[in-house]
Amino acid sequence: VCAPVCWRARAWEAIAMGTTQCFGFLRPPSKVTTGYWDFRGLGAPMRMMCVYASVPWEDIKYSARQKAKGSWTAPEWEREQRPKLREQNPLVQLPYVINHGTGEVVTQSSAVYLYLGRILGLGGSSREEELANEQVLFHLYGMFMEVRDLVYPSDGSRSEEHFKASLDNHFLGAMAGHYGKLEAWLRQRGTSFFAGRKPCTADFHVWEMLDQQEAMARAYEFPSPVEDFPLLRVFYLRFRELPELKTYFDSSDASLPINNKMAFFK
Question: What is the pLDDT of residues 25-38, one digit of tens each?
């Protein structure tokens, strides 16, 4: 846990720099609770952020189970926790974050990441970095939606056979196009991370997306997707070795399934 003096030092450093993020440092959360399914998916970035920032933190994982007729249910979430949280936020769904210092309940993945960025000091240290962070974050959500439509049963991926037949186009077409844009972004900015010299919320989302794609490529005997993108590959390797994240990567959270039980690739 980051001691109060650590937060205070970061606050005064931010004030001295004249950044807007200082106000997030002045009221560090007394505790944060995150909620998501019991797999990595969109939950891994926020889990990594909490570990990186050394915030007092609790993570709640919900499980889905299959009914006799084939549909899926999650009683703990649907019948117990969601009705309670809707009293504080009618929009609530997974993922969510609760700030115990303010009582705020924030939902929707991109909103959760941005909110954590503000309260944990991971939103950028200048207006330029804030804008960069937000743009990359929302680009990544578009990538996630494409992957979701591929790996889960949908109109675009109706069966496991159809999923496997779509992987060539996925890795050599759609993902290569996205990786090319991310590579060009890093080259243009000339920074170690996607918004600046230090990790912001978008970096956690980017790394998780890259790692999930690496795992899927290995599972189906495709080459490493980052191999042809040198700056993206350096970022991928550098982020994995951040000392602040050693606790996360040594934990069971890092080895959770990538997707939910009904996905073609788990």
Answer: 447 799 999 999 99
